[in-house]
Amino acid sequence: MHGTLVTDAELLRHLTQGDEHAFQALYERYWHKLYHYTVHKVEFQEMAEEIVQDIFIDLWKRRENLMVDRLESYLFRAARNRIVDVIRASLTRKYHEESSQMIRFTDKDKLDPEEELAYNELYSAIHEGLGLLPEKTGEIFRLNRLDQLSAREISALLDMPVRTVEYHITHALRTMKVYLQDFLILLFWLSVNT
C-alpha cells in the first residue's frame, strides 16, 4: 500500500487482502469514536475498551470474507450488539447472584421440617448440577456464585482472559438453569416463606 488512503472503501479493499497498514489506519480512524460511544453505555472504562478491542479483533479475523458497504455503520452496529450482550449478561448475572444469595442465606433454623427438606433437596440438586459441568467451568462457577468473586477477580486468580471467565459462567448458568428448572418453583416458594 503506497501513500495515504483516505476512504473507508479503499482501506477495506486493502484490509481484505491482509494489509496491516490498512487495518491500523481504520483502527486509528474509529477507535476513539467507538470508545466514546461505548463508554457511555457500559459501567466501566475497561469494559468499553475491551468491547472496542474485540470489535477490531473480529474485524481483522473476518477480513477475508468481509462484505461491508458502510464501515462506520458496521462498526457502530457491532458495538451496539456487544453492548446489548454485556447488559444482558449483567442482568442475568445479577438475577442469579440474588437467587444464589437467597439460597445461601436462608436461615435453616426458621424452616419447618417440610421447608427444610425442600431446601436440602434444592441444595443437593445444585451441587449435583455442578457435577455435570466440565471441571474448569464448575470451578469458575463456584468461585463466582459461591465465593462471590467477580469475573475480573477470577481472571486474575486463574490467569485467563475475562471473556473466557464470562463464557464459563454463562455456560454454567445455562446448564444449571436447565438442570434446576424443576426446582425454580421450590426456590420461589422458599423465598416467599422465609
Features:
disordered C terminus, 194 residues, mainly alpha, 2 domains, Arc Repressor Mutant, subunit A, Rna Polymerase Sigma Factor, Chain: A, elongated
Structure overview:
Helix 6 (about 135-145) packs across helix 8 (about 160-180). The chain is elongated and about 75 Å long. The protein is an all-alpha fold. It has two domains: about 10-85, Rna Polymerase Sigma Factor, Chain: A (Orthogonal Bundle), CATH 1.10.1740; about 105-194, Orthogonal Bundle (Arc Repressor Mutant, subunit A), CATH 1.10.10. Helices cover about 75% and strands about 0% of the residues. The chain is built from nine helices and no strands. It has helices at about 10-15, 20-40, 45-60, 70-105, 115-130, 135-145, 150-160, 160-180, 185-194.
List the helices and strands and how they pair.
Blueprint: H1 8-16, H2 20-39, H3 45-61, H4 71-104, H5 113-131, H6 135-146, H7 151-158, H8 162-179, H9 184-193
Helix pairs in contact: 1-2, 2-3, 2-4, 5-8, 6-8, 7-8
Would you kindly provide a brief summary of this structure?
The protein has 194 residues and is mainly α.
> Alpha-carbon distance between the termini?
69 Å
Radius of gyration from the alpha-carbon trace, in angstroms: 23 Å
CATH topology of the largest domain: Arc Repressor Mutant, subunit A
Number of domains: 2
Percentage beta strand? under 5%
Structural class: mainly alpha
Helical amount: over 70%
Count of alpha and pi helical runs: 9
Mean pLDDT: 79
Number of strands: 0
Specify the CATH architecture of the largest domain: Orthogonal Bundle
Give the SSE string: HHHHHHHHH
The CATH class of the largest domain is identified as Mainly Alpha
**pLDDT below 50 for ≥5 consecutive residues: which ranges?**
102-106, 189-194
The main pleated sheet reads as:
none
CATH level-four homologous superfamily name of the largest domain: Winged helix-like DNA-binding domain superfamily/Winged helix DNA-binding domain
What's the shape? elongated
